[in-house]
Amino acid sequence: MAVAKSVVAGFLIGALFGASCTLAYQGKAYDNQYLQLQKVTNENSDLQQQVEQLNKRLNSPTNVPVVESIRVNADAPDGLSEIEVIQVVKQELAFLIGEPLVTLQRRPELISHLIDGKTITVDQQQLTIHVNTVVVVSQLYVSVSATPGKSG
Q1: How many domains does the chain have?
Q2: How many CB atoms lie within 10 A of CB 144?
Q3: Taking the CB of residue 75, how many other CB atoms lie within 10 A of it?
Q4: Shortest CA distance to 96 belongs to which of 64, 58, 140, 131?
């Protein structure tokens, strides 16, 4: 009888251990799928903006070069933070799409003033965005980094 109880107890412990390992594995897979979904959603949004911009250019052709799209590269503590930082920066700069490049060439500090030092909260952690690089071409390129904590 004692042997049967120890076999059942061992089986239950093994089942619980297996279930917890499976849960951890599935949680990681779920997180990866969520990050992939966010990246694809952001890419889809970018492509829709490009289509709108190209339609505007097609309907009213001008020879003035304009900002066609915005590309953001972010250095953040983790994947979710990186996606959120990219999304926030693109939202803050979205009004520049369709604007003449000469506007940014005359005021190159404009992007830094809009973004640098901005604090966002991701997963209950505050991140401060710092602008590293801005390249003003038809596809505006902005490189930022996000560091934990408030700006000082």
Answers
A1: 1
A2: 24
A3: 14
A4: 140
CB atoms within 10 A of CB 126: 14
For tokens 């700069």, name the residue. 93
Assess contact for 98 and 66: CB atoms under 8 A: yes
CB atoms within 10 A of CB 44: 10
pLDDT digits (tens, 9 = 90+) for 52-103: 877 877 777 777 888 888 899 999 888 888 889 999 999 899 888 888 888 8
The sheet with strand 125-135 has its strands ordered as 69-75, 139-148, 125-135, 119-122
Q: d(Cα 119, Cα 129) in Å, to the nearest integer? A: 6
CA 62 to mean position of chain CA atoms? 33
How far apart, in Å, are the Cα atoms of 87 and each of 24, 45, 77, 108?
A: 28, 10, 15, 21
Residue-range definition of the domain harbouring residue 74? 2-148
Query: Cα–Cα distance between 100 and 106 in angstroms, integer?
Result: 11
pLDDT score of 150: 59
* pTM of the complete model: 0.69
